[in-house]
Amino acid sequence: MAHDSNCIFCKIAEGSIPSSKVYEDDNIMAFLDLSQVTKGHTLVIPKEHVDNIFSMSEETAATYFSKVPVIANAIKNAFDVEGVNILNNSGEVSGQTVFHYHMHILPRYGKNDGFDVKWQTNSEKYTNELLQEIAKSIENNIIKQ
Prior knowledge:
By secondary structure, this protein is of the alpha+beta class. It has 3 helices and 5 strands; from the N terminus they run αβββαββα.
């Protein structure tokens, strides 16, 4: 399994940096985020060093994403969780600061729990024709197996 010797999450995965681990198997690890934006805020990482979603293989993704609901349900069962935000920042422009793929599972306890998501709506800028054009551009770039 490939590791980056300069990566803090690789060091956590190999055990050279301690963490508050909540789950581990041969391929992934989940541990509490030190910031604890909300109680139970957990990071899920592949043990293999993957920079971001763009460099993740389908095999790694299948293994990785199959465990996210398991971990989210464990958080829900442990605490009085009303909902959850699942968040990944891939690329510096999106806010990624640790360049080892990781997903945040943020338990939600109500509107005043310390986390908020605000979406900007731009629907008035997109006609149905433009939406179809955008959809076709994406569809044409999907690699078929």
